Amino acid sequence: MSIPTEPQTTVRRSHFVDLTPFRRSPAFFRLWLGTGIAGVGSQMTVVAVGLHIFQLTGSTGAVALVGVIGLLPMIIAGLYGGVLADTFDRRIVAIVAETVAWISVLGLAGLAWFHIEVLWLYYALTTLTAVSTTIVGATRAAIVPRLVEKPLLPAASALGGISMGVAITLGPAIAGVLVATVGIQWTYTIDAVLFLAAFTGILTLPPIKPEGGSAVRGIPALVEGIGFLRRAPNIRLGFLIDLFAMTFGMARVLYPAVGALVIGGGAVTVGILFAAGAVGTLLSSLFSGRLGHVRWQGRAIRNAVIAYGASMLLFGLVLLPLGTQPSGSITDSLSTANLPALLIASIALAGAGAADNISAVFRNTMLQSAVPDAMRGRTQGIYIVVVTGGPRLGDAYIGLVAATMLFWLPSLLGGVIIIAAVAILVRINASFRDYDALDPKP
Prior knowledge:
Low-confidence stretches: 1-11
Oligomer: single chain
Helix content: over 70%
Number of domains: 1
Mean pLDDT: 81
CATH architecture: Up-down Bundle
CATH superfamily: MFS general substrate transporter like domains
Number of helices: 17
Strand content: under 5%
């Protein structure tokens, strides 16, 4: 396909997000828009599934199992999905995977409308969604560098942060209100409708076949990709840092219990907590205009992830003195909430969202600028496994620690672990610490 080649010659002075990728690549804009609209619905379903299972079981552990059960299939999908993206037309791979994800959402809606309360069916369909969206994510990330020029990759990543920020701001907030008013059935159904926007962004792309790929396919291609990662210390450490952050700092499965038993406010509080992190993501993306000129990106990742750990530590400290309310319910109104605690918790989660997004901008830029196109699908597949698998490991960690009913402990302990681990890892890896955006090396 034709890619604009005009270099970016001016230095931006504005802190506001750089919209140049939209002007240079209409195809990137269409993909971005379709992904963002569909993402709103997907985030609604994330919240709805958690609330639905908590409503059926009253167990945070049962909510955590959504992520735990889907972990191994998602890992396999990420690894092999990356192979597919490096073997076949990436547009076709994305279309097929999106179709499977859409069917699974329709299945969740059908279960809810017919009041089928068989728990394993919800686990199965959410696992199918995780598998297909993992493949889509790896493939879409491998497509972006073919649509925009290399100097604009940080700006494109920041725009992706806006899309994600809007999705995870509006989606959970809308879901919280819908579940509390018209019910879970409509929440799933609206996601199925919004999902159609994803097809618009992908169907309008031209064929995008991998460039310079090898002749190997299947398992040998996967082995080749893993071998490349062993020779890419900067990319590898970026994965490890993100895995620590997402495993020990992702408190999402706590939110139903926090809304019902700690802060109060029920489903509306849950929606606010989900949306708070997204607000941070969105604001950090909106004011990302200067990120494209950060040269020492390894250090920037270190600083951002340490800030993320500190934010999660604050979230745990907010919950520490509150105790639990055994009589609380997920259907309580916001009038029952501890509003000062909700405000501080939301600020902490917004800080975590902003820090994680800034880290993601630089991690994505490293991947897209330092990895050759022929390997991009496989490395993106591994990256998607880390990004989505880390939170599922975090779900297991949270579920185990929260079984103590000390709902403050997982985030407080996790924040300390993240800060210490990242500081040590970057200190002992000089290559990552001195990673130079002007001379990108994997």
